[in-house]
């Protein structure tokens, strides 16, 4: 079996990779496990390896890695470079904070001494999607590794080149890229101690079910249909600029992209006009050009599924295109719809809907099966009053939703289980071991 990667902008074949058969893949897991025995011994050595090998290798390879990413999945090159740089910032965060994150915690009890250790679990399988092919891996794999675990990566097939380049950059037997399909990866879950999955909700649910059979630790980062709520007290011009970034970055293919724009009736037409101005300024086209902000969707399949969603929106409401599409490119789109739309649109399509009161905004915000991130725009106290009732893992006021290494990232409902990043997410793949000494 082999995997063929294709440039979604030109349609050209990029490379053909030989797949690992299940035995090869298992050997890679064994290799990582063997290396983990020494790796887990010293946090100082692990921090040293992150500082002296992994970080400089990422810095040296930033442009090459970004180029492979853009060629394989169509992310505009300037955003690919930013993604690699953001991943280097996560390395910095871990280099600086790992000692504290994984330090034993003393707890006063009746024992002469009692404390909690955060020991690594063993080998973690990271199953990752194509949309942020470097950052997604960084978020799951770096904390797991610095905690003392080994990592095997099953990356999305369309970004196999990125996957192998990451293995080269990390340059340790501890981190192995598996070139396997989803079925083979799932069959190997029994050989690892935990699974970090980022991807769609149905696939995540099936992987969590498999991991559940073996009682393996899981972290699930799944889909979202995040609301972007604009109150009548909002700075509309700032909100419209943020709406364009939040909805259109990564060609609209982000789990935390603002997807449903809920606008208070009084400011609806003003916000719509400003958002249209912002959407019409966006440069659409060749993702290799520095000025491009919206490039092609990642594959023909992806394009087909977004096209079907646009057709549905056209049948139910008003749809306006800002530019021409060709090949896998869909230009920025604003749709107006006066009904509940629950699907996640993985493309540059903003759906606008009016609301009357704050209570109605919260009700509409919550009426999806997802609960990843919510962005609220308006007077700080007005917006903050709504936070407690929003069903989401993250709420950002007067900002789009984004990930920051210092804060937990993740969702509730059908958007996921567990957290990534921060000290909380960084401890997900550890054994919180109780120690009691008399
Ligand atoms: P996907 O189809 O679920 O694929 C994700 C990963 O799972 C890929 O490595 C894929 O490999 C693998 N996979 C697919 N089918 C599988 C199966 N039956 N068993 C085991 N593994 C399987 O998701 P996607 O379309 O690539 O990514 C988009 C989705 O990810 C969106 O829903 C988005 O919201 C979500 N996402 C969530 C977050 C978050 O942090 N919450 C972040 C980014 C993306 P192949 O490529 O080989 O099929």
What do these coordinates show?
The protein folds into two domains: 2-222 and 415-437, Aldehyde Dehydrogenase, Chain A, domain 1 (3-Layer(aba) Sandwich); 226-404, 3-Layer(aba) Sandwich (Aldehyde Dehydrogenase, Chain A, domain 2). Helices cover 41% and strands 22% of the residues. The chain has 14 helices and 20 strands. The chain has a seven-stranded mixed sheet with strand order 12-13-14-11-10-16-17, sandwiched between helices. It has a six-stranded mixed sheet with strand order 7-6-5-8-9-19, sandwiched between helices. Helix 2 (43-60) packs antiparallel against helix 4 and helix 3 (62-73) packs antiparallel against helix 6.
Labels describing this entry:
438 residues, alpha/beta, Aldehyde Dehydrogenase, Chain A, domain 1, Aldehyde Dehydrogenase, Chain A, domain 2, 2 domains, seven-stranded mixed sheet, six-stranded mixed sheet, 14 helices, globular, binds NADP nicotinamide-adenine-dinucleotide phosphate
**Strand content of the residues, in percent?**
15-25%
Task: Please outline the major beta sheet.
Answer: 7 strands, mixed
- The level of helicity is 40-55%
Give the overall shape: globular
For this structure, what is the CATH homologous superfamily of the largest domain?
Aldehyde Dehydrogenase, Chain A, domain 1
Q: How many beta-strand runs?
A: 20
The average pLDDT is 97
How many discrete domains?
Answer: 2
Name of the CATH first level of the largest domain: Alpha Beta
Total helical elements: 14
* Computed CA radius of gyration, to the nearest angstrom: 22 Å
User: In order across it, which strands form the biggest sheet?
Assistant: 12-13-14-11-10-16-17
